[in-house]
Design a protein that fits this description.
This protein is mainly α and 384 residues long. Strands 2-1-3 form a 3-stranded antiparallel β-sheet. About 2% of the residues have low confidence.
Length: 384
């Protein structure tokens, strides 16, 4: 692992999936929109707002058409607008694209949301010693200076009634979410502008790709499976493919669909843990903990998610035998219980990430120079 980072490991794993688990030249079909030719006075993105047409393009026989085919495949980690020969994937293709206007609105709102999350949570991390002092336990009472501007009743509730674990772990979840969504929103707008001027092809424009995150409602409905399989970004979904291929090869999938599913889950989180270990630099500066030990903490967080999903699957089997169907899924009680389970699970696994991140000084400096939250609280708008 010395010197390898997230992107390097990600590309190696993606190459392994394409070369070993798939045979793109035989089974992959690219779903491509035909080239649009617009008159000079064409202003509306009618070719996106109307239902687009697609042509199916298998692996080309000649060299020149192969180049864009292969290059597009290499950057299509979610395999959107590709048929792979797997029915559960192919029946969802092609995806329904957004119009440029809808995507631009979505990206701007997401960027604003991400800014407010980062701004608020960074102010909390600056005031809470848990995010700076190595030996501070997550159950340590919150410092009084964390809530100086709140009414006394809210201060008493936050400082003395609610468990500190349940107040700190949302910060550990919200900050990565905000950083990822911010990276998937504002940087895409220049490309969208080029596409609106017909200087960039539609299939390479972000408004024709699937939305980065799915519906948050999947979490109370499906628990950890909904969190990781439907809501969280699906960029690394391909990591489940080696497990699925193994289950087919040894015949597990034919004997038990549930066991085949768990093979995919174990594969996804085992490889994801290895990939995210690259978040820790090979020779961190100013840390007392070794790089490898910090990497184990990062990997353990992802590996435990497979355990949590396994527990969830077993419990749902038991519930399916003893609880009436109307109570198993969809009812308010079922959603509340499921959300409570995810909250508790996250409150005990997310702190694993805090150990290396705190050691590396992730929370020493505010990520944003201009802070609206600080200005509202009367502390000035400049955070740096």
């Amino acid at each position: 692992m010395n010197g390898l980072d997230v992107i390097s490991v990600n590309l190696m794993q993606w190459s392994f999936v394409l070369l070993v688990c798939y045979d793109p030249r035989k089974t992959f079909i690219r779903l491509r929109q035909p080239q649009q030719h617009h008159p000079p006075n064409h202003r509306k993105d009618q070719h996106v707002e109307d239902k687009p047409t697609y042509i199916e393009e298998p692996y080309p026989n000649t060299l020149l058409p192969r180049i864009p085919w292969v290059l597009t495949l290499l950057v299509s980690l979610r395999l959107s607008n590709w048929k792979t020969g797997h029915p559960s994937h192919d029946r969802q293709q092609p995806i329904t694209p957004l119009s440029r206007t809808a995507f631009c609105t979505h990206a701007l709102l997401l960027a604003l949301q991400s800014y407010l999350i980062l701004d608020t949570t960074s102010l909390l991390t600056q005031s809470d010693p848990y995010f700076h002092i190595t030996d501070t336990s997550i159950t340590t009472p919150l410092p009084p200076q964390l809530t100086p501007q709140l009414p006394p009743i809210l201060q008493h509730l936050l400082l003395h009634k609610l468990p500190p674990r349940l107040l700190r772990t949302p910060i550990l979840a919200l900050q990565p979410y905000a950083l990822i969504t911010q990276g998937g929103s504002l940087p895409t707008l220049p490309i969208l502008l080029l596409n609106s001027l017909h200087l960039w092809p539609d299939e390479w424009s972000p408004h024709t790709w699937p939305i980065f995150f799915g519906p948050l409602a999947a979490v109370p409905h499906h628990g950890l499976r909904g969190l990781w399989g439907k809501w969280w970004h699906q960029t690394n979904r391909y990591l489940a493919v080696p497990g699925r291929s193994f289950a087919r090869w040894v015949g597990i999938e034919r004997k038990s669909a549930r066991a085949g599913y768990m093979c995919s889950v174990i594969s996804a989180f085992a490889l994801s843990g290895v990939m995210h270990m690259g978040l820790v630099p090979p020779e961190p500066v100013g840390t007392e903990m070794s790089a490898m030990r910090m990497r184990w903490y990062v990997g353990a967080f992802f590996w435990l998610q497979a355990v949590g999903i396994g527990v969830e699957v077993l419990v749902m089997d038991v519930v399916g035998r003893w609880v009436p169907g109307g109570w198993r899924r969809g009812s308010m009680v079922a959603r509340m219980v499921t959300l409570g389970w995810v909250t508790v699970w996250g409150s005990y696994t997310l702190p694993l990430l805090a150990v290396p991140f705190r050691e590396l000084g992730y929370w020493v400096y505010p990520p944003l120079p201009v802070s609206v939250t600080r200005w509202v609280l009367g502390r000035g708008w400049w955070a740096w």
